[in-house]
């Protein structure tokens, strides 16, 4: 499935689910590719409406269970282990934590859970907390990397949740 088809399908699903995209809605996509020695791949779509972002992730090739899921500071997945993506995106200088409760990095998206066949689907709404979809800027997620980790994010360990090696990486691009 091509990126435009995925974005179109996601938008149709939103509209058919009684959610209406406002004219100011912005869409960004990360096409995730496996790091060296891994088979994880997929697509994550971000739809911004005001201060809320709808996140739709469809991933395959994971081991069953939870996996850390984060926006990283550098838009570079060229390293064989994706270390070129840098650390978690953290423009506010906050501690790592649970995005559902309390202080956390701007790039903390928590965990994505894979089923027994290694497929994971996430449909979530998150608050931007001062982040943007601008083409450039210190607070923008555009041009940064999205990373999936081998293990679960424990949501407390500093500085990054102890979620293990990086198994997939993709650059977030504005559509």
Give a description of the structure.
There is one protein chain. The protein is mainly beta. 8% of the residues lie in helices and 37% in strands. The chain starts with a helix and ends with a strand. It has one helix spanning 3-16; strands at residues 26-34, 41-49, 52-60, 65-72, 108-114, 120-127, 145-149, 166-174. It has one helix and eight strands; from the N terminus they run H-E-E-E-E-E-E-E-E. Strands 5-4-7-8-1-2-3-6 form an eight-stranded antiparallel β-sheet, with helices on one face. 37% of the residues are buried. The chain has a single domain, classed as Superoxide dismutase, copper/zinc binding domain (Immunoglobulin-like, Sandwich).
Main sheet properties: 8 strands, antiparallel
Number of helices: 1
Specify Rg, calculated over alpha carbons. 15 Å
In the CATH hierarchy, the third-tier topology is known as Immunoglobulin-like
In CATH terms, the superfamily is Superoxide dismutase, copper/zinc binding domain
What are the main properties of this structure?
single chain, 175 residues, mainly beta, Immunoglobulin-like, eight-stranded antiparallel sheet, globular
